[in-house]
């Protein structure tokens, strides 16, 4: 039973790590990959016109500021998820300990012998 609980706990931990990585991947893809609005994407510089350079620079600064604000928000989510993972691990350990104690308390001290088994052997 203890082996089963260890395996179960390891599966839960791996599952939450995979979900955590998946969440990071989705947020990262949202920041860099799937933006189709040309106003909200980073624009390369055109070195021929100084006025355009200034406008592109201002626009790129706004885009970068928005991305940094999203990253700061993700930092809080990351710490929340990390804290929840630690709490979940502690709870699983407590459940395993309780089940182990229950099994120890309710397990018979002597092996159970089936009376019918002796009759069929004769």
Q: How does this model look, in words?
A:
With 122 residues, the chain is an all-alpha fold. The protein has one domain (2-88). It has helices spanning 2-32, 50-106, 115-121. The mean pLDDT is 76.
What are the salient characteristics of this protein?
about 120 residues, mainly alpha, 3 helices, rod-shaped
Which residues form runs of ≥5 with pLDDT under 50? none
Encode the helix/strand succession as letters.
HHH
C-alpha termini separation = 35 Å
SS class: mainly alpha
Helix content: over 70%
Global geometry: rod-shaped
Radius of gyration: 29 Å
Counting DSSP H or I runs of 4 or more residues, the number of helices is: 3
> Into how many domains do the coordinates divide?
1
- Measured by DSSP, the beta-strand proportion falls in under 5%
Number of strands: 0
The oligomeric state is single chain
Mean pLDDT: 76
Write the layout of secondary structure elements.
Blueprint: H1 2-32, H2 50-106, H3 115-121
Helix pairs in contact: 1-2
């Amino acid at each position: 039973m203890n082996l089963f609980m260890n395996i179960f706990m390891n599966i839960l931990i791996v599952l939450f790590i995979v979900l955590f990585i998946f969440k990071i991947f989705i947020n990262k893809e949202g920041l860099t990959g799937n933006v189709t609005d040309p106003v909200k994407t980073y624009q390369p510089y055109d070195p021929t016109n100084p006025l355009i350079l200034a406008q592109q620079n201002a626009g790129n600064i706004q885009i970068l500021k928005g991305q940094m604000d999203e990253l700061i928000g993700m930092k809080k989510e990351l710490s929340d998820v990390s804290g929840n993972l630690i709490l979940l691990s502690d709870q699983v350990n407590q459940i395993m300990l309780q089940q182990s104690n229950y099994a120890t308390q309710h397990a018979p001290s002597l092996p159970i012998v089936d009376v019918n088994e002796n009759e069929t052997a004769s």
